[in-house]
Structures are given as C-alpha cells and as structure tokens.
Amino acid sequence: MTAIDIQGIRRLLPHRYPFLLLDYVEHVEAGGSITAIKNITANEPFLQGHFPEFPVFPGVLLVECIAQAAAILASETVGAEASQDTLYLLAGINRARFKQFAVPGDQLRITATIDRRSGKLWRCPGSIRVGEKLTCEAEVLFTHKVLE
C-alpha cells in the first residue's frame, strides 16, 4: 500500500494542466485497488462556463478522474514493465451513472479496481464519493501504447 504525491502522479501520467485531475493517491495496491483524491475548487477552468450561476464539475471529467486513477493502478501493477514512455488511452466507458452533483468545495474520493486484463486491454470499474455519498460510478476500458 503506497501513497503517491503530485510529483509521483506527474511521473506516472502524461496529463498536464488543465487535464491532470488527480491531486493525491492515498493508496495503491498493485493488482488490487487504488484510492485517489481530487479537490474541486471554484478556480477550475472547466467551471467558467459549466455553469456560471451554478458551477458543476462536468460528468465526463468525473469519468476521466476514474480513468486517470485506473491508469496509475495499471502502471503500478505492471511495475517493471512500465516506462515513462507508456501511454494509457481510454478505449471505452460502460455503465456510467451520475448520482449527485460535484461542486466547488467537494473532495472527490476516487476508487478503482482491475476487473480484467486481456493483452493490452484493461477493464476497471470505479466510483467516486463525496463523503459517504456516491457521486459517480463507471467502468472504464483502456489500452496502453509504448511511445517510441
């Protein structure tokens, strides 16, 4: 069980502002599960137009939070096989459900597990909670590519 700070996240994910969404990984267990944190602030660039009078963190970005957490879990799972040049790419989204709004001031607790891995394809169910309340759940499918 390992925690990962923002510098470690930057080493594992190629995403950068404004698309590096995760702030901290509380724990990751290779081959098991991950719990990551995203703090939503009023300064999120996505909230300027979504919606000015009632800022709501976009649902598609909630799913992206799950995908980024799952990519870190995959990277930690393959360990020595992974390299700085490995890119995890979203291949599909199944059963996405949004249960409540995520708004400035919320702390998202993102969890994901590896359900199945077949060759380069990974299937990872995940969920997001704010406190005890389920905010979003989705299954993400992704693949990886080694850049040359």
Please tell me the overall pLDDT: 94
Q: Work out the count of structural domains.
A: 1
The fold-level CATH name is Thiol Ester Dehydrase, Chain A
Task: Name the CATH superfamily classification.
Answer: Hotdog Thioesterase
Helix/strand-derived category reads alpha+beta
pLDDT under 50 segments (min length 5)?
none
Q: Give the second-level CATH assignment, the architecture.
A: Roll
- Work out the helix count: 2
The coarse silhouette is: globular
List keywords for this structure.
single chain; 148 residues; alpha+beta; Thiol Ester Dehydrase, Chain A; 8-stranded antiparallel beta sheet; 2 helices
List the helices and strands and how they pair.
Layout lengths: L1 E3 L1 H7 L11 E5 L4 E7 L19 H20 L7 E13 L8 E7 L2 E3 L2 E10 L2 E14 L2
Antiparallel strand pairs: 1-2, 2-3, 3-5, 4-8, 5-7, 6-7, 7-8
Report what the structure shows.
This protein is α+β, with helices and mostly antiparallel strands. The chain has a single domain (2-146), classed as Hotdog Thioesterase (Thiol Ester Dehydrase, Chain A, Roll). The protein is built from two helices and eight strands, in the order E-H-E-E-H-E-E-E-E-E. The chain has helices spanning 6-12, 59-78; strands spanning 2-4, 24-28, 33-39, 86-98, 107-113, 116-118, 121-130, 133-146. A hairpin with a 4-residue loop joins strand 2 (24-28) and strand 3. The longest helix has 20 residues, at 59-78. The mean pLDDT is 94.
Quick synopsis:
The chain has helices spanning 6-12, 59-78; strands spanning 2-4, 24-28, 33-39, 86-98, 107-113, 116-118, 121-130, 133-146. By secondary structure, it is of the alpha+beta class. A hairpin with a 4-residue loop joins β2 (24-28) and β3 (33-39).
